[in-house]
Amino acid sequence: MPANQSLSLSIPALFLCPWNITLQPAMGKEVEPEAEPCIGFRDGVCKFLVILLGSSLIMALSYQLFLYAATADTSSSSSENAEILAMNASTGQCDLSSGEWIPDARDPAYSNSTCSFISSFQDCLTNGRSDTGYLHWRWKPHGCELPRFDANKFLNRMRNKSLGFVGDSVFRNQMESLLCLLSEVEEAVLVYHDETFQTKTWHLPSHNVTLGLIWAPFLIKSTQAISKRHMQLYLDVLDDTWTSQYHKYDYVMLSGGQWFLKETIFWENNTVVGCHFCAGMNLPELGMDYSYRRALRSVLDFVSSSDHKPLVVLRTWTPTHFEHGLWYNGGICNRTKPYKESEYTADPVDVVMRDVEEERFQEGVRNGLRLRVRLLDTYHLSALRPDGHPGPYRRFHPDVSKKPQNDCLHWCLPGAIDTWNDMLMEILMGDEELRSAF
């Protein structure tokens, strides 16, 4: 489908409101989900330094753009990872997003009994999921290896730095995975939460590392003041929940998600310009990809113009795996192993939204953001893991015979989503290598 063609699907409104998590302000517990130039030197020296600097930059940038593996240090798991890194160095550039899932006999780095950060809705083992095969797969990129997350290395490299996640509940899911992975070395301390417990900040004092989770599911301003049924999206106004905190972070993770599938009315320049899924409202049906494209453009324009220059990581769209229906009408996800490449057919909605992300990322690179924006492409490896979701085990020991509601969007912890943080570590460690080269 052409990048400028909008996709509008006539699907029930209930599908457009997936997994809104409501929190109890008093307890912070989740409740029922609703479904520098060269100056002053002689010319010859200046030219030499410019050439040297340029060559170094090109080498470092090539390393970074392909998510090349970072060099190993003397951490607890560095021996194994050093072998992987040496292997990758011999094969050259590596695209970590292209590969396959292969069996892995090793246990996960943490468990539901060793990590206290797992939300009940993603605690599949505690909730009674008896098959554990989904825990024993690892992502094998074509032509190279992806090192396993190394908490010691991560914390040492991130010492005195901060990382913020901006997005929806899937980012909360990934943050909990990261907190669990790090807890094997140091337990994070919750130092801030808003009244809804959706925006939180943790601190790891031994390394002075700060982690932030900022609730901004659209990244842009949204309200429901005019229509309780339709979200009002202001495509040219960013959500100040995150922009007001942007300056606090050395690294910022951003992602849109399933919220863009909701029934929405679009505003630009304080004027309604169209909508998504608004039959009978006499408005242009522009489609969900229109709003997502405009939102990402507004985000990247902000990143480009901001005086604060963190490394920004754009994480790609997260696919769902509902079969035989959707979340509200009996849809399930009960598979117990990954798809092979030939077994998977992409959902058209996922393809369109993933293409919008690639389009906007490449546009940002062309417009001068090459050194400041990375793409964490988790889409394909996630699409091949229908077995990684809670399904009915979003609840404690559900009666499967009564066909309970399934969660086929979020991910069991531990599980497939831990691989997202394996990849994130490679990006962040690679950036540290680039910065330390100058």
UniProtKB/TrEMBL annotation:
<dbReference type="GO" id="GO:0000139">
    <property type="term" value="C:Golgi membrane"/>
</dbReference>
<keyword id="KW-0812">Transmembrane</keyword>
<protein>
    <submittedName>
        <fullName>Uncharacterized protein</fullName>
    </submittedName>
</protein>
<keyword id="KW-0333">Golgi apparatus</keyword>
<dbReference type="GO" id="GO:1990538">
    <property type="term" value="F:xylan O-acetyltransferase activity"/>
</dbReference>
<comment type="similarity">
    <text>Belongs to the PC-esterase family. TBL subfamily.</text>
</comment>
<keyword id="KW-0735">Signal-anchor</keyword>
<dbReference type="Pfam" id="PF13839">
    <property type="entry name" value="PC-Esterase"/>
</dbReference>
<keyword id="KW-0472">Membrane</keyword>
<keyword id="KW-1133">Transmembrane helix</keyword>
<dbReference type="InterPro" id="IPR025846">
    <property type="entry name" value="TBL_N"/>
</dbReference>
<dbReference type="InterPro" id="IPR029962">
    <property type="entry name" value="TBL"/>
</dbReference>
<dbReference type="Pfam" id="PF14416">
    <property type="entry name" value="PMR5N"/>
</dbReference>
<dbReference type="InterPro" id="IPR026057">
    <property type="entry name" value="TBL_C"/>
</dbReference>
<feature type="domain" description="Trichome birefringence-like C-terminal">
    <location>
        <begin position="146"/>
        <end position="426"/>
    </location>
</feature>
<feature type="domain" description="Trichome birefringence-like N-terminal">
    <location>
        <begin position="93"/>
        <end position="145"/>
    </location>
</feature>
